[in-house]
Structures are given as structure tokens and as C-alpha cells.
């Protein structure tokens, strides 16, 4: 029952459903008596057919349930039902549960479970993502180490952007380092050790080019090249960010050398390295040919080379070996015209033997004519006809013996030898003369010189 008198506040009292109308009037009068009620028109009764939920016997609609205080006075049946948690939307960090749907409530605390996202994790840890929206109250359950606590090593390096990620694997916490990149040594690439622990996934960033790379790609300027030993040395790397380096890798070749005056580039050495050969050599115009050679004017502008005589000069007959073939019948000549000839042949350079020589009267070919050179004088091939007789059938007498001392049988086997005042060796055979003295004596008709072998 609710009443209001003038300026007094609205007063309500609960009266049991079994009280009679009269009893209710008595109670009301008692309460209002203290306020000196004067007349009915000055008193406003506001009792408006209030009852309680038990009397109403209400049935609550879906997701509503009977109020816990069913004795309270209500105006309508709708006031007898309270909303259940099934109608409540859990706030951020809270998660609803069907087990709470029949609960009367309008708060996270009554209708929801606190999730791990509201749990404070210790330093160096964070909420496990898979548990962030799951019920949880303890850090030991809800939290795990952050990537900032994970040590990246080997082919992995730290990724600052993942520092607050909750994980402890290389794949989740780290990023590939240059150690994960394969630098192709066959292509002349090697790992840049200064970037070994730096994030990188490409050879362009992580690898250094070597002299081998330059060699394979022919990057030296014209007239320069890379020595095989340099190309094979993969430790000879180019500075970071440099695609080629002439100073580091390239060496000059002869083709890049400018020869000084009086010298000429050796064309055969054009592609050789300048420090390995003599790129510039003196020309033949400054060379003096040795004995037996004559200069070739056409070769004046040629390089002298390692064998200047061969490069600048031409052999003469003075160097021709006419006796190179035994029994050839040719001999080295002393003829000046022949010795200065540059036509290298037996006929041009040599003299013939005495084999086919025709001797003058009373002369014969000397022994072994094939071993004797023929000259302008017959004496080189011929000897007096008495010489074979002396050489083959007679014996030279001793100095203290003469023909007179020989008997007839011995006389025809001896001859006398002496040296004339002019120094010429002279031979005189012994001859037996029956008349007039019947003696062995010198044959002064056959005095001779120039016998071979005597």
C-alpha cells in the first residue's frame, strides 16, 4: 500500500495477501493519524491495485526467470521476471558461458568469465594468443615468453618488429640472416662476413663479388685481364657495393703498353701479361748481325726477339755445313763469293770433290778423291804420276843412306827424300843403271814434289 499526504513523501508498505479490506483500512488510518488527516479531499491515496508476484502466478518469457523476491509488490506480471545472463553481452576481456545463461544478472562479473587478456603478465612475457579469449586467471597459465627473450643464431637474426610476439621459435621470432643465403662460388661469389648476422635473403645484398666474378664476366677494360691465380683466389673480394674493381683484379697486358722510341711492341705477346714477358723489344735496325749472317733490310722494323740473329738476319754459306752428309762429295768452300751467298744449298755454298776431276798430263788423281775438294788449281786433286809408285812400292831411305848403297834387287824399292832450300819436300827414286857403272843411283829424270802421304 502506498500513500501520500500533501508534501509528505510517498510511503509504501507491504501487506499480506490474506489481510481483509477492513484490516487494510485500519492500518492505513493508523499511519495517517499521526499526520492529522482532516478530510477525504485533502488526502491522496495512491494505492493502485498493487499485488505480489506469487498472487499473479506469472510465467516468464524466454531468457527471463522469476525474480528472487517474489513477495514484492508489483504493478504487472512483467515486473515479476528478471533478465537472465543469456541476454547479457560480455565486455572486452570477458567471455560468456552457457552455464551462466540461467543466472539473473546484468554484469560481467555475474554473467561472464574473465579471460587471459586481462591477466597481467610478468616482464618479458605476454599473453598467449591462443588463450587471449579463453577463461584464465593465472599468469602461469595465460602467459609465455616474448620473442625478445629468444636468442636468434646461425642462419637467423633478431627481428625487432617481432619483439612483443609471444613465441620461442626461430621461424616466429627471427628473420633470415645472410648466413641463410648460398653464395655461388662457381660464379665468383662469397659471403660478405660483415653481414653474416645481418638480415638478408638475396645474393645481391649478402654476397661479395670476387675477381673470379670479374673474370667470368670479362669486366676488365681493354688491354687488361685477370691472371688465373688471381681468379682462383676467392679471398680477393671487391669492396662492398662495388660491381667491378680494376685496381683489385685487373693486370695490364702488353696490348696496353706504349713502347718507347727505338722499340716496338711484340705482336705475339699482345695478349700476355706485361710483367711476364718483354712487351717491347728493340728493332732489327739497331742489331748487328754476327759472323756468318747478313742483315735483312725488310726486317728492320721487326722486333729482335729472343733470337735476334734469326729474327733480323739471314744465314750465309759461311755457316753452311757442306760435310753434313758423309760421302756427299761436297766440301766447304773458301771462295769469298760463295761464302757471302745467302742461298743455302750445296751447289751455292760448297765446292765439289775431286772424284770427277781430269788431271793434266803426267798427273793422276790423288788417293781418296771423294774426300778432297776441287779447287781452281789442279794440285788439290792431282799429283805427279810417279807418286803412287813411291807411296805403294818403295821405301824412303834414311838420311845416312843413299842409292849407291843398294844392290840391284833393293834399288827398285827405295827412294830418297829431301827438303829443298825453298822448304819444299822433294822425292827422287833410285834406279839401277847397268851401264856404264852397273850401279844403283838417283833417277834425276823423275825428281818430284807434292805427293800425297809422303
In terms of structural class, how would the helical and strand content be classed? Answer: alpha+beta
Arithmetic mean pLDDT: 84
Low-confidence segments? 1-20, 22-47
Number of strands: 30
Distance between the termini: 187 Å
Helix content: 10-25%
Rounded to an integer in angstroms, the radius of gyration calculated over CA atoms is 70 Å
- Helix tally equals 14
Strand content: 15-25%
Largest sheet: 5 strands, mixed
> What characteristic shape results from the CA principal axes?
rod-shaped
What does the model show?
It contains 14 helices and 30 strands. Residues 1-20 and 22-47 have low confidence and may be disordered. By secondary structure, it is an alpha+beta fold. The strands form 13 sheets. Strands 26, 27, 28, 29 and 30 form a five-stranded mixed β-sheet that branches. Helix content is 16%, strand content 20%.
Q: Notable features of this structure?
A:
454 residues, alpha+beta, five-stranded mixed beta sheet, three-stranded antiparallel beta sheet, 14 helices, 30 strands, 20% strand, disordered N terminus
Amino acid at each position: 500500500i502506498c500513500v501520500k499526504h500533501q508534501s509528505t513523501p510517498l510511503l509504501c508498505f507491504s501487506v499480506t495477501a490474506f489481510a481483509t479490506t477492513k484490516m487494510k483500512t485500519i492500518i492505513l488510518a493508523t499511519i495517517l493519524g499521526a499526520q492529522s488527516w482532516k478530510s477525504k479531499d485533502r488526502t491522496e491515496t495512491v494505492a493502485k491495485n498493487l499485488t505480489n508476484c506469487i498472487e499473479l502466478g506469472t510465467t516468464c518469457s524466454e531468457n527471463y526467470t522469476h525474480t528472487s523476491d517474489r513477495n514484492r509488490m508489483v504493478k504487472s506480471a512483467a515486473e515479476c521476471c528478471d533478465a537472465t545472463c543469456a541476454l547479457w553481452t560480455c565486455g572486452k576481456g570477458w567471455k560468456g558461458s552457457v552455464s551462466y545463461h540461467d543466472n539473473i544478472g546484468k554484469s560481467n562479473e555475474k554473467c561472464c568469465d574473465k579471460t587471459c587478456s586481462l591477466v597481467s603478465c610478468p616482464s618479458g612475457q605476454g599473453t598467449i594468443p591462443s588463450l587471449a579469449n579463453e577463461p584464465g586467471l593465472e599468469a602461469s597459465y595465460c602467459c609465455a615468453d616474448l620473442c625478445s627473450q629468444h636468442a636468434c643464431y646461425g642462419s637467423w637474426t633478431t627481428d625487432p618488429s617481432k619483439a612483443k610476439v609471444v613465441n620461442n621459435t626461430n621461424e616466429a621470432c627471427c628473420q633470415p640472416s645472410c648466413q641463410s643465403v648460398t653464395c655461388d662460388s662457381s660464379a665468383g661469389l662469397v659471403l660478405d662476413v660483415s653481414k653474416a648476422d645481418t638480415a638478408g635473403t638475396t645474393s645481391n645484398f649478402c654476397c661479395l663479388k670476387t675477381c673470379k666474378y670479374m673474370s667470368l664476366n670479362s669486366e676488365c677494360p681493354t688491354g687488361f685481364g685477370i691472371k688465373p691465380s688471381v681468379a682462383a683466389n676467392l679471398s680477393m673480394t671487391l669492396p662492398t657495393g662495388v660491381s667491378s674493381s680494376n685496381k683489385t683484379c685487373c693486370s695490364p697486358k702488353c696490348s696496353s703498353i706504349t713502347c718507347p722510341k727505338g722499340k716496338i711492341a711484340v705482336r705475339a705477346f699482345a695478349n700476355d701479361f706485361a710483367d711476364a714477358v718483354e712487351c717491347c723489344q728493340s728493332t732489327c735496325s739497331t742489331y748487328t748481325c754476327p759472323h756468318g749472317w747478313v742483315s735483312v733490310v725488310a726486317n728492320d722494323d721487326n722486333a729482335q726477339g729472343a733470337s735476334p740473329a734469326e729474327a733480323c738476319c739471314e744465314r750465309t754459306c759461311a755457316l753452311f755445313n757442306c760435310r753434313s752428309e758423309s760421302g756427299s762429295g761436297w766440301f766447304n768452300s773458301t771462295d769469298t763469293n760463295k761464302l757471302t751467298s745467302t742461298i743455302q744449298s750445296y751447289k751455292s755454298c760448297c765446292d765439289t770433290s775431286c772424284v770427277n776431276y781430269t788431271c793434266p798430263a803426267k798427273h793422276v788423281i790423288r788417293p781418296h778423291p771423294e774426300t778432297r775438294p776441287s779447287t781452281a788449281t789442279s794440285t788439290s786433286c792431282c799429283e805427279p804420276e810417279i807418286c803412287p809408285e813411291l807411296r805403294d812400292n818403295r821405301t824412303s831411305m834414311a838420311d845416312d843412306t843413299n842409292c849407291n848403297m843398294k844392290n840391284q834387287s833393293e834399288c827398285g824399292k827405295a827412294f830418297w827424300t829431301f827438303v829443298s832450300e825453298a822448304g819444299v819436300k822433294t822425292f827422287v827414286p833410285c834406279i839401277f843403271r847397268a851401264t856404264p857403272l852397273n850401279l844403283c843411283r838417283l833417277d834425276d829424270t823423275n825428281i818430284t814434289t807434292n805427293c800425297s802421304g809422303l
